[in-house]
């Protein structure tokens, strides 16, 4: 690949120390010959949708697991996340009257950056768990040793997940007439579920009216759904890169949208170099320490031609910093002619440890950061383009508060994340209603 050599000569943050380079080479060769998971036309279609987001004509809803696991590559788990995202999108579309671009953190989110390369328990130190794509979660030498063969399992799990996603979103499950069935199992105990039922009732009546008028459309029965993940493991992403025959442009075919994290966005690093040479839409996470010069460098490296839909900035400032740190970045980008969409990640800046030692987040802090994000854009006359959240379709107990009123004592009941805490299904729907109200009040 013409772009592969330059990034290999640069510092590569957050890469595993693979113990067997020969095995890694074999795995990379197999991935180069593998069937692409997505195709360039799909990536270009998402780029068009994100261009609409940047123009203020649509809203991006991006979400899913903090870190997918191979064990959760099941129809039930995938359906649960699809259902939650469809419900959130339905609330936003109907209550805020805005088209929603739906992107799952799915079919590739099997690796995570870590604050430390090692973990110590009871005086014993092993490599940190970096996601199922790299090593195992169990605290044993065998599990924690990075294994290149896991990259092949990552590809297989992503392919299986994509097959399920395409079946659910085009095979009838996403039909708006089924909006009530998406809600059936938790409406009785959820205030957000009750509000959702009101919307579903109104949609049902509207669909009946359209059918009676002969105005039924295919859009009511299927939905566009794209997938994304952090482009962290460069050996995998490079091996999954293909050249489009017509245009000659290179696309990472592991997902439609790839993002560069806060820990890997160094301007002189391998990740920025690699993604500057591919044509996919890309996103970059920006934390509260981001300076205006950092932003300008990212613009010039990743989107020098200011191509609409190419670049998305994902602000993860924290509830207490978003109003202070975000305005100067948004203003600087606008002054430079940026067409990048602005999206809020209200999760990562609001994580802390509970007395039990488990990582958690307060639902109120998440809402507060989204509110601050909207307030900044309202004051500047710019568009709050979307949200990027970590959620699951299950009723886990990992984040505090929300409609269920979860407290510290509840965390142990169903804390299932292998990495960061996720919103459960009810909290996700609560958040969708808050966002709809903020969007409507613009």
Description:
It is a single chain. The protein has 442 residues and is of the alpha/beta class. The chain has 13 helices and 14 strands. An eight-stranded parallel barrel has the order 1-2-5-8-9-10-11-14, surrounded by five helices. The chain has a two-stranded antiparallel ribbon with strand order 3-4. α10 (292-302) links the parallel β9 and β10. It is globular and about 65 Å long.
Could you give a quick summary of the protein structure above?
This protein has an eight-stranded parallel beta barrel with strand order 1-2-5-8-9-10-11-14, surrounded by five helices. It has a two-stranded antiparallel sheet with strand order 3-4. The protein has a two-stranded antiparallel sheet with strand order 6-7. Helix 4 (75-96) crosses helix 6, helix 4 packs parallel to helix 13 (425-440) and helix 10 crosses helix 11 (322-335).
Unreliable spans are none
Query: Number of helical segments?
Result: 13
Q: Give the percentage of residues in beta strands.
A: 5-15%
H and E string? HHHEHEEEHHHEHEEEHEHEHEEEHEH
Please bin the fraction of helical residues: 25-40%
N/C terminus separation? 46 Å
Give the helix/strand class.
Answer: alpha/beta
Profile the largest sheet. 8 strands, parallel, barrel
Quaternary assembly: single chain
Q: How many runs of DSSP E, i.e. beta strands?
A: 14
Radius of gyration: 21 Å
Strand order of the largest sheet: 1-2-5-8-9-10-11-14
The overall pLDDT average reads: 91
What overall geometry do the principal axes of the alpha carbons give? globular
